[in-house]
Amino acid sequence: MSGPPDETPWRQAAFAAVDLETTGLDPERDEIISFAVVPLDEGRVRPAGLLYELVRPERMPPPETIRIHGLRRADLEEARSLDELLPALRR
């Protein structure tokens, strides 16, 4: 999938804003534990395409990170793996 030309004003483009919560700040070691996607088309949020998912990491985040992202072990234990959720995130 290719994007619009670089000179396209953002209000004329279709794109998505993506927010990730992770187990830490090291991309080599830490994992995604939640994501949210907000699609925008011509400068307007498209609510029908909103997506939020919790992700079960291979290693649970340390307890001290709860104050940052608010996600507890109990929240993540029943979540699906990132491999299971990637198709939805890519869409």
Features:
3 helices, 91 residues, alpha+beta, 20% helix
Describe this structure in words.
The chain is of the alpha+beta class and 91 residues long. The chain has helices at residues 66-69, 73-77, 82-90; strands at residues 14-22, 32-41, 44-45, 51-54. Strands 1, 2, 3 and 4 form a 4-stranded antiparallel beta sheet that branches. Strand 2 (32-41) and strand 3 (44-45) form a beta hairpin. The protein is elongated and about 45 Å long. The relative contact order is 0.19.
Return the string of H and E elements. Answer: EEEEHHH
Low-confidence stretches: none
Please report which band the strand proportion falls in: under 5%, 5-15%, 15-25%, 25-35%, 35-45% or over 45%.
25-35%
Largest sheet: 4 strands, antiparallel
The backbone outline, from C-alpha atoms, is elongated
Distance, first to last CA: 11 Å
Provide a concise account of the structure shown:
The chain has about 90 residues and is α+β, with helices and mostly antiparallel strands.
Describe the secondary structure blueprint for this structure:
Elements: E1 14-22, E2 32-41, E3 44-45, E4 51-54, H1 66-69, H2 73-77, H3 82-90
Antiparallel strand pairs: 1-2, 2-3, 2-4
